[in-house]
Amino acid sequence: MFRIQVNNFEKKDLLMELIDEFLPKSAYELADEFADHTGENDTLISVNKEGCSDINAIKRELYNTLSKYVEETPDWGILTGVRPVKLAGELIEKNGRSIAEKILKTDYFISDEKTKLALDIYEDQIASCGYPEEESVSLYIGIPFCPTRCSYCAFASNQEDYGEVKKYLDALYREIDYVAEEMREAALYPESIYIGGGTPTTLTSEDMTILLKRIADSFDLAKVKEYTVEAGRPDTIDGEKLLAIKECGADRISINPQSMKADTMKLIGRAHEPGDIERAFTEAREMGFKSINMDLIAGLPEETLTDFRDSLKRILEMEPENITVHSLAVKRASRLKEEDPDLYVKQSEEVRKMVKTALSELSEAGYKPYYLYRQKHMAGACENMGYAKPGTEGLYNIRIMDEHQTNIALGAGGISKIYYPNENRLERVANVTNYREYINRIDEMIERKREGVFNAY
Description:
Blueprint: E1 2-6, H1 12-19, E2 28-31, E3 43-47, H2 55-69, H3 84-95, H4 97-106, H5 112-129, E4 136-143, H6 162-185, E5 189-197, H7 205-218, E6 226-230, H8 239-247, E7 252-254, H9 262-268, H10 274-287, E8 291-298, H11 305-318, E9 322-327, H12 335-339, H13 343-346, H14 348-364, E10 368-373, E11 384-388, H15 395-402, E12 406-410, E13 415-420, E14 425-430, H16 435-440, H17 442-452
Parallel strand pairs: 1-2, 1-3, 4-5, 4-12, 5-6, 6-7, 7-8, 8-9
Antiparallel strand pairs: 9-11, 10-11, 13-14
Helix pairs in contact: 1-2, 3-4, 3-5, 4-5, 6-7, 6-17, 7-8, 11-14
């Protein structure tokens, strides 16, 4: 057991995020002080003896100390935040690339490889998407329903009968109507639209058509550069739904296998076969969508590097425009957290190999990293990374990770982020996550947006 003492620093949770990248929670205890150190196998670590208040200085001391006990050290150094590319971009804009590179390496201990990756991605984002206009927003609309709940999932993902879905949609339409009217009054327009979940294609073809027409009739789509609908589960996709999506203006969809191994699909709680993925992809391709994204997860239970490479090979054979590679994260609200809270640690070495394999093979196939983000409890202390064929980068993904544009999120669990450019800061305005609460409190959700979002304009 590692017993870690941090002197004169109260915000221990900020330090635990870094310690978690070295050690499973079951292997350490963090406290202000320890009366005894009598355990035969205990290792006592004491940091911040001078009482420093600089969080990064304390993290550097922790990093150097833990590195002596743990053979492999995190490539992202002391950086535990979600958005490494945002930090890289801010440093480039303020200091230029060469100084930004030095800061990331010397102040944050980020490896040469990850430093170059973050800097390159930011510069490529600016080259491909530029900066957002002040009157533009990204628009998110959430459908919190799925056919089944995957074992790794911590999102709003409910399995309910049609009556409940209908009540939810009625409430959502009220929020859509309100937001659209306020955006017109404020002369705001959506630069990108993203319908996510859950699985939006869980809706019936009729309800999908009604929702998409409501969006088209409510918002000015003339300046929309990208319109995405998540169609992640192939067992929810058919030609009628794909046609409805295409005819209402959406030009980008996601079909997300997570793995192409049948046994894994069953293990994580998915009710479809690899062949269903290929069938859904072929239908979408024949429908003429401009861009199709596919997701893989590195480190799923019982999967080996060979399994991951086989899945990647089958996806590359379909030639989607975008491929997103997620590193397994054992999230608090997921079933995996209950089954094995330390799974992300056990999978670390294998996931690092998978992530490196993905970068190598996708680069060779003509894909380029275009955005990345990190989460707590990620296997191998790695990252989630989106790859794209040149010219097909996902605009919405770039904007929400860059956080220099207002994001207005509708539906249960939606978290709007209002950007104040003069102060370079964000204000969060959240809807409730429970869809039943959202239905019952829709007037309150609208009032929250009136006060927290549109009063800003």
